[in-house]
Amino acid sequence: MEARWRSSAKPVQAPKTTKTVSFEEVSGKASSSEALPLSLHLTNAVFFSLFFSVVYFLLSRWREKIRTSTPLHLVNLSEIVAIFAFIASFVYLLGFFGIDFVHSLILRPSTDLWNSEDEEENEALLRKEDARKIPCDQALDCSVTSAPIISAQKVVDEKPVKLTTEEDEEIIKAIVAGTTPSYSLESKLGDCKRAASIRREALGRITGKSLSGLPLDGFDYESILGQCCEMPIGYVQIPVGIAGPLLLNGKEYSVPMATTEGCLVASTNRGCKAIHLSGGASSVLLKDGMTRAPVVRFGTAKRAVDLKFYLEDPENFETLAVVFNRSSRFARLQGIKCVIAGKNLYLRFTCSTGDAMGMNMVSKGVQNVLDFLQTDFPDMDVIGISGNLCSDKKPAAVNWIEGRGKSVVCEAIINGDVVRKVLKTSVESLVELNMLKNLTGSAMAGALGGFNAHASNIVSAVYIATGQDPAQNIESSHCITMMEAVNEGNDLHISVTMPSIEVGTVGGGTQLASQSACLNLLGVKGASQESPGANSRRLATIVAGAALAGELSLMSALAAGQLVKSHMKYNRSSKDVSKTS
């Protein structure tokens, strides 16, 4: 990999010897002990003694005042002197010990950073790390210039430091040998992009496989640390197309879709055009509540039933809601549904979560309630915070019936002329195909929430583009598509009912730059300042509207016999892959 470093200074070959750079040398400041009139140990002893003496004196005086009911703010001369002495000694001790301690955490890794047999070489490596940072996208086998020296998070020297990649090479060898865990690179190096580069090179050597097609540069690895992805080695490029404008509830939206399936965006775009020419679609949010269902066990079924009755008693709901709502200023408990299986009890909590998708939020609230219940039900054994009655990332009838996340219905009336001229089919053909395919055919297949043509196609594409959890496409794609002829059979009424759209506009992947830009395009970026939860609810209606457009277009292509022809035109590459490297 060729090393690159964007800097106005010219690269200079690094010397083979390394000079130890201390914090004082980097910052250009003398040590604080050099300015003291007494020796360092004696000065420390004086201030330590002064600090604890005045603390003892003040505590004794204040205890006496409390005993005699004397106001604490009334102080005499000796107490004033003691207070000033306390402040002075505290400032000295904080400045001498506290700041150095913070600097040691920021600028100096631990002495057992790398398990190297040569301790002197290892210590030199650590001292280099104190004074320099290596650009993450540099190659591991080439000489490069480093970033300017950083001290106390400020640039104090604009001249690049000469540095080789011998340090990176030693780290790579340690990973390959198994003496240094790959997952610890970010915390030990303090440089996420450099960690990804080193991990990537080590992986290539271990597996013997090339990663040349997987990009490394051009991504903010700091943004995913501890939040989106562990042990990164690069990122996958997925093209984003635009379908629309989608006219929904009187407002136009350009819908971003991240996909590698040819014809998908074009087909959804045609559906948006048909809807727009017919006056637009309308959508209604039916329900908004994320769920989590722990499973608990008792010694007998009777005790499990006792807890069930307790939780379902309306008189206890307010108390439980107060305990649950402590987890977040947005979490609001809506209800608890209990299901018995012998002596096991499943508790399905439902709560609103603002603009967040809300899985973490509802889980914290559930944990609060479980801790609270242990007081009155000490024999309750919590088996798991999730007992699969939630149900997350799995097709489940409970989500299809009860809903999870946002429940939305979206509809439109498509003009008969638009059906014929834009969609190239007829109202009668669409109604018949929908009945035999989406309804009867899905029933024959034993479908669970799959009474549609390809709702998951649109849901997945929008989810990836906007930073949602792609795995939640499973329940979010639960959809029933209905079609019928209206206005004396001249026009088409089409609707999609989606009971469990799980989306958020804050948290998770929504904060990444690309996904945030797509949310901004839809006008739902971040949390709503006017009405908490409004942005995520609007995003759910957009997902349903886009699914409506996708269903309309695909069903029309099937009815007109155009599906194979369209895919052969838009979903086949003319590139001769045998000639590619």
Automatic annotation (TrEMBL):
Pathway: Metabolic intermediate biosynthesis; (R)-mevalonate biosynthesis; (R)-mevalonate from acetyl-CoA: step 3/3
This protein's UniProt keywords: Endoplasmic reticulum, Glycoprotein, Isoprene biosynthesis, Membrane, NADP, Oxidoreductase, Transmembrane, Transmembrane helix
Pfam entry (one): HMG-CoA_red
The keyword Oxidoreductase is annotated on this UniProt entry: yes
Location within or outside the cell: Endoplasmic reticulum membrane
The EC number(s) this enzyme carries: 1.1.1.34
UniProt xrefs under Gene3D superfamilies: 3-hydroxy-3-methylglutaryl-coenzyme A Reductase, Chain A, domain 2, HMGR, N-terminal domain, Hydroxymethylglutaryl-CoA reductase, class I/II, NAD/NADP-binding domain
Membrane topology: Multi-pass membrane protein
High-level lineage: Eukaryota, Viridiplantae, Streptophyta, Embryophyta, Tracheophyta
GO cellular component term, pick one: peroxisomal membrane
Family according to the record: Belongs to the HMG-CoA reductase family.
GO biological process terms, semicolon-separated: coenzyme A metabolic process; isoprenoid biosynthetic process; sterol biosynthetic process
The organism's place on the tree of life at top rank: Eukaryota
Catalyzed chemical reaction(s): (R)-mevalonate + 2 NADP(+) + CoA = (3S)-3-hydroxy-3-methylglutaryl-CoA + 2 NADPH + 2 H(+)
Protein's UniProt keywords contain Ribosomal protein: no
Membrane-crossing segments per the record: 38-59, 80-99
UniProt name for this protein: 3-hydroxy-3-methylglutaryl coenzyme A reductase
